[in-house]
Every structure is written in structure tokens, then in C-alpha cells.
Write a structure and sequence with these properties.
single chain; 393 residues; mainly alpha; Serine Threonine Protein Phosphatase 5, Tetratricopeptide repeat; 4 domains
Length: 393
């Protein structure tokens, strides 16, 4: 076998230096057709693909079709593997050369083969060819891998196929593939497979603004873990600030409406509310609906970091509605001061005062002044004086 490879290499050199460029493809085509063993075919084909020449596309398609038709007659395991390796080389080259006429053959091969590497390569090639006629089939393949998986049954093979499907959808850049990319990004796949990481990258490139698609997923899915993943995906995306705020408002609304006695689910709900508030703060919301949602966080019995972040978000808006909401919250705290407050209550009071100062809106003047001339502890009064100074400036 080594002797044959050496002879093939010498032959390739001889052809390169002695035959004119327009005859090269004809020479290699004749050589491949005359080859009788799979090893000889493989050796010649490796020299053909190295030339990366579109003139070879008829031979590549012909060779793949022949291998596909005769693969079932192979009984030797070693020879069968060589068949699959050779088909994989050809399929990859058809994708590199953008041979669109080969899409039907590549798709049939992808459906028929049981070799995960060959199936994945065929999927990638369909993506390179932008064979959108098969988009629905590829989406279904990834969907089945995302949801119909039984741990321990062909994990690695399924991850290889999923990775190929993800690259195919990424290259096709069609919104129809987005939802299954999202579920792959949070699926069962192992970290070493890079499937989830690649799916996240593909989601960013497949559509410019996925806000509507993600809103649809969040609205349909009941899992709080999925709702949180939707919000995180929106934040990673290239969506406009307006789109990100739309998703954040929906997420906060979901976090306020739903209740559960399950500890794990409660943690997801808490993170959903917290992240929603952070996004509203960071992306500078400017509508009354968001203010109502943020204000509601204060009046619920939620974890203190959620409350403090909601107050920060309100403080990032200098409008009258937001300042009025904060002044109302501070009035509530001023009114209940005499009832005794915990250490957490004091943190929230100071957070409210600081947020009012950040608005720089005079609507907060009365309640801040009331703090300054009441029986609050020194640290709260100092916070109120600093906020009043911000209003005056």
C-alpha cells in the first residue's frame, strides 16, 4: 500500500509539470475511473481534492453516486470504513466548491448513512450549498436530537450529528432554524462536544434581531429555566435596546405572575426577575409599563437584591413617572419608620434614596427632606442629604 501511495504521489507530480492545465482534470478523471480498489480510488481522490478545481465537480458527483450505490455490497468492515472516509472527502469538497447540483445526492446520502461523521459532513455541506429546500428536514433532525435523547445511547455520535446540523443552520441563515439552535444551546450535550457553545454563536449570526422569536418561545414555554435562558439569549444577541427591553419586560412580568413551592424553580424565578431588572437598568427603559413592573417588585416579598436592582432601574430614568414611583416608595418607608425596621429594610431605604437622587428630578424633594428632618439613623440622613444635593445640582 505504501508503494502505491508513493507511486500515486510521483504520478501527481508528473501530471502537474507535464500536462497543460486544461487537460489536468481529464487525466485525473481517467485515472480515477480506471482504479479498481477502494484504496487506489482514495489515493487518487486525495490528489484531486487538493487541487480545489471546479472542473472536477462532474467527477466528484459521479464518484459519490457510485460509492453511495455500491456501499451496501461491501462486507468487510475495514473496506466499509474506507468507503465512508472517501465519501466524506468527496462530500466536503463538493461543499467547498459550492456544487449546488449535488445537493439532492448529498441529502440522500445524509439520510441513508449510519456513519455519524459522514452524516455530519453531509449536513455541513448542505449548509454550505444553502440547500434551503432541506431546511425543514435539518431543523427536524436537530429537534429530535435536542428532545428525544436517552442518556448513554450513542451520546458521542449524536453530538457529532448535532454539531453538523448546527453548522448547516448557521450557514443557511434562515430564521426557521433559530428555535432549535436555542434549545441546542441549553441542551443535554456535554461541554467537550462544543455543541452548546456553537449553537449560541450560531444564534447570534442567524438573525439580526431575534426578539420576536424569543418572545414566542418565552410565551409558549412553561419552564422557568427556559424563560431565563430566553432572556440571556436576548441579552447576548445583536438586538436593539428597544428589543431587549421588550423581552426584559415580558420576563419580569412572567417572574411577577408565577409562583411555585419548588425551591429550584423559585431560584430560576428569582434570577429571571433580577436579570430583567438589570437589563432595564442597563438599557435605559422609557415607558410607563416598565415602571409599573419595577415598582411592583418593591411591594412583593422578594429577595433583597431583586428589590435593590429594581430601585436602581427606576433611578436610571429621570422622568416624572419614575420619580413619582420612587417618591411614593420612600413615603411608604417614611410612614412605617416608627414600626421598627430590620437591617435589610435600612438597605432598601438607602437604595430608594440613592435612586431618587439619581433621577435628579425635583419630585423627590419633599420625601427626601422629610428623611433629613426625621428620626432616621445618621447613615440614612446622610444618604438623603447627598440625594438632595444631586437634585439641587
Amino acid at each position: 500500500m505504501k508503494k502505491r501511495i508513493i507511486l500515486t504521489g510521483l504520478l501527481a507530480f508528473f501530471i502537474t509539470v507535464t500536462v497543460s492545465s486544461n487537460e489536468v482534470s481529464a487525466v485525473w478523471t481517467r485515472l480515477y475511473r480506471r482504479a479498481r480498489t477502494i484504496e487506489h480510488k482514495y489515493s487518487i481522490m486525495m490528489n484531486i481534492v487538493e487541487q480545489d478545481n471546479r472542473e472536477f465537480t462532474p467527477l466528484l458527483t459521479e464518484a459519490l453516486d457510485e460509492l453511495f450505490r455500491t456501499r451496501g455490497n461491501v462486507t468487510s468492515l475495514l473496506e466499509a470504513r474506507r468507503f465512508d472516509e472517501l465519501m466524506r472527502v468527496i462530500v466536503k469538497e463538493l461543499g467547498e466548491l459550492k456544487t449546488r447540483d449535488s445537493a439532492d445526492l448529498v441529502f440522500r446520502l445524509m439520510r441513508a448513512t449510519e456513519d455519524p461523521l459522514l452524516k455530519a459532513e453531509a449536513l455541513v455541506t448542505l449548509g454550505k450549498l444553502r440547500a434551503v429546500d432541506y431546511l425543514g428536514e435539518i431543523v427536524l433532525i436537530l429537534r429530535n436530537l435536542n428532545f428525544n435523547f436517552i442518556p448513554g445511547e450513542g451520546d458521542r455520535a449524536n453530538e457529532i450529528i448535532a454539531y453538523g446540523a448546527i453548522i448547516a443552520l448557521e450557514k443557511m441563515k434562515e430564521p426557521e432554524g433559530f428555535e432549535q439552535l436555542f434549545f441546542a444551546s441549553m441542551g443535554w450535550y456535554s461541554p467537550g462536544s462544543q455543541v452548546r457553545k456553537r449553537a449560541k454563536l450560531a444564534m447570534v449570526t442567524i438573525v439580526d434581531d431575534p426578539s420576536d422569536l424569543l418572545i414566542g418561545i418565552m410565551s409558549r414555554e412553561s419552564s422557568f429555566a427556559i424563560k431565563l435562558a430566553v432572556l440571556e439569549a436576548e441579552d447576548r444577541s445583536t438586538a436593539s435596546d428597544e428589543g431587549k427591553l421588550r423581552v426584559a419586560k415580558l420576563a419580569l412580568s412572567e417572574g411577577l405572575v408565577h409562583k411555585t413551592s419548588d425551591a429550584v424553580e423559585n431560584r430560576f424565578l428569582s434570577r429571571l426577575r433580577l436579570f430583567s431588572c438589570e437589563m432595564m437598568r442597563d438599557y435605559k427603559f422609557d415607558d410607563d409599563e416598565a415602571i409599573e413592573l419595577l415598582e411592583e417588585v418593591f411591594y412583593k416579598d422578594f429577595e433583597i437584591n431583586e428589590v435593590l436592582t429594581a430601585l436602581e432601574a427606576l433611578g436610571s430614568n429621570s422622568g416624572d413617572v419614575s420619580a413619582t414611583a420612587l417618591a411614593k416608595i420612600l413615603k411608604f418607608q417614611n410612614d412605617r419608620q416608627s414600626h421598627g425596621l430590620t437591617a435589610e429594610d435600612y438597605r432598601v431605604v438607602k437604595g430608594t434614596i440613592h435612586a431618587l437622587g439619581n433621577t435628579k428630578n425635583p419630585i423627590g424633594f419633599e420625601e427626601l427632606t422629610r428623611v433629613e428632618y426625621s428620626d432616621w439613623v445618621g447613615e440614612v440622613i446622610r444618604e438623603a442629604k447627598a440625594a438632595l444635593e444631586m437634585l439641587n445640582n
